[in-house]
Amino acid sequence: MFLRRLISTIVLVPLTVFALFYKPLFIIVLLLFTLGGLYEFFSLVEKKGVPVYKYFGTVVGLIIPLSIFFRFELTKGWELLFIVAGLISLFVLQIIKKDNSQALFSISSTIFGILYISWLFSFIVKIKLLPFGTALVGALIFITKGSDIGAYIIGSIFGKHALIAKISPKKSVEGAIGGLFSGVLIALISRSFLPNLDIFSPMHLVFIGFSLAAVAQLGDLSESLIKRDCLAKDSSGVFPGIGGVMDLIDSLLFTSPVFYFYIYRALSQ
What we know:
- By secondary structure, the chain is mainly alpha-helical.
- The chain has one domain (about 1-269).
- Helix content is about 75%, strand content about 5%.
- The chain has ten helices and two strands.
- A two-stranded antiparallel sheet has the order 1-2.
- α2 packs antiparallel against α3 (about 55-70) and α8 crosses α9 (about 200-230).
- The longest helix is centred in the C-terminal third of the chain and has 28 residues, at about 200-230.
């Protein structure tokens, strides 16, 4: 398992680095991950016996990061307008459908998939468009995934006490603590390539590292909750040793918006 995870990591790291510095590749990779995440989520829900509008959800889910990347806004609140329009469209599709026995589940699951995968992941695009965006996205990924790796290694070696056994039996308290320390350490290391601003002082980086590491673990547990409810071990087997796209980006889905709002507010002051 460790060897397969290592091989997947070796492939993903250079791809991520190239995507950070080459904008066309950045949006292509992000769209592919969004597409993969949406496909896996809708597939899990369908296996649970809930019909979803996966094609509609996928199209809408891809438009969200694209509209942000190309700065396409009909109005100032374009994202909210887009979500409302999507919800109304889903109701129209359900109304004209012959079978309405699971209407509430179908609509709710489709909307949730769009928000959970596409909308949360699209905050990486928002961060990329901020001043010093490349360094910021690099730090976000470095801290988040570094925390994940730290939790995995410490948990594998020293893990004895289950964190939340009913959701993820393999996650341990020791691993969670290791992930928090790893997040702080890597945040401090990130200072070497982050801009020389007050918001990236050592004190701030300790706070950022700890917060992102904590939120990353919440994101991991949240995806585990979804998989357990759908009776699945992994979202898919795309990445050997890791699982699927959802297994790869689950922590980033939560850390991306948290990091964006923190940085955006700090830069606006």
